[in-house]
Design brief:
This protein has 230 residues and is of the alpha/beta class. It folds into 2 domains: 2-153, 3-Layer(aba) Sandwich (Rossmann fold), CATH 3.40.50.2300; 164-229, Winged helix-like DNA-binding domain superfamily/Winged helix DNA-binding domain (Arc Repressor Mutant, subunit A, Orthogonal Bundle). Helices cover 49% and strands 13% of the residues. It has 11 helices and 7 strands. Helix 2 (37-47) packs parallel to helix 3 (63-72) and helix 9 (186-193) crosses helix 10 (197-211). It is globular. The protein starts with a strand and ends in a 6-residue tail after the last helix. The relative contact order is 0.10.
Length: 230
C-alpha cells in the first residue's frame, strides 16, 4: 500500500482529490491532508509517505520551496507538483529541487492515478501541454524525458544496459549530479542545495566512486547520457 500526502490550500479541491484516490485506487492510502507548505514539510518527515501531491501556489511557504525542504531532508517520498498553472518557470524550479513530476489539476482522475504509480517507480511525469512548450529541441527532450502525445507524456523507462550505479544514487546525489551536468561548480551547488562546499565536495567524491570515474569531466560525460533518468 502506497502512502499518500496531499498538500493544497484549496480545501474543496484537496478533499475531492482525497475522495478520488480513496474510491478509485486500492493501492493508495491517503495518510494526511495539509493546507500549507510549512506543515507539509514536518508532516512528510513524520508520516514517511511514498508520494506527495504538492500544490505550487500557497500562502507562506509555497509548494516549490516546501519541495526543496522535503528533498533536503533526504525524504524518500516522491514529490509531484499538482497545479492549475502551466508556467515553465515553476516546471524548471520544481524539477531543479527534486520533484519527480509536474501535473495539471484538470487532468482525468485515472491519468492522475497512473502518473502517481509511475512517479513512485521513479519515472518522471509531465503533461503533454507542458511538454509542448518544453520540448523545443533535443536538449529539452533529453532534460525532461517526455513527449507530447497524450494526457500525460509517457515516462521513459531506463534501458536494460543502464548502469547499476544510477539506481544506487540518493535523492541528494541525483540533485547534485544534475547541477554538475548543468555546469555549476561546487560553490554554486552548495548555495543551491544549502550544503557547505566541503559537503558538496564529499558528495562529488562519492559520485566518482559510484560511477567508477576519476574526474569531473568523466562524471559529467557519463551523467549526460543518463540525464533523463535522474
Amino acid at each position: 500500500m502506497h502512502r499518500v500526502v496531499l498538500v493544497d490550500d484549496q480545501v474543496l479541491f484537496v478533499e475531492s482529490l482525497r475522495t478520488v484516490i480513496e474510491n478509485r485506487a486500492n493501492d493508495f492510502e491517503v495518510v494526511g491532508v495539509f493546507y500549507d507548505g510549512d506543515t507539509a514539510v514536518q508532516a512528510v518527515a513524520d508520516l514517511q509517505p511514498s508520494i506527495v501531491l504538492m500544490d505550487v501556489r500557497m500562502p507562506g511557504t509555497d509548494g516549490v520551496m516546501a519541495t526543496r525542504r522535503i528533498i533536503e531532508n533526504d525524504s524518500a517520498a516522491r514529490v509531484v507538483m499538482l497545479t492549475t498553472y502551466d508556467d515553465d518557470e515553476y516546471v524548471h524550479e520544481a524539477v531543479r529541487y527534486g520533484a519527480i513530476g509536474y501535473l495539471l489539476k484538470d487532468m482525468p482522475p485515472d491519468a492522475l492515478l497512473a502518473s502517481m504509480r509511475l512517479a513512485i517507480s521513479g519515472q518522471f511525469q509531465i503533461p503533454s501541454k507542458l511538454a509542448d512548450k518544453l520540448i523545443g529541441g533535443a536538449d529539452n527532450e533529453k532534460s525532461f524525458g517526455a513527449t507530447a502525445n497524450s494526457d500525460v507524456a509517457p515516462a521513459i523507462p531506463a534501458p536494460d544496459d543502464t548502469p547499476d550505479w544510477l539506481f544506487d544514487l540518493s535523492r541528494k546525489e541525483r540533485m547534485i549530479l544534475r547541477l554538475l551536468t548543468d555546469g555549476y561548480d561546487n560553490q554554486e551547488i552548495s548555495e543551491r542545495v544549502f550544503l557547505a562546499p566541503q559537503t558538496v565536495k564529499n558528495y562529488v567524491s562519492r559520485l566518482y566512486a559510484k560511477a567508477n570515474v576519476d574526474s569531473r569531466t568523466h562524471l559529467i560525460r557519463a551523467a549526460r547520457t543518463l540525464i533523463r533518468y535522474l
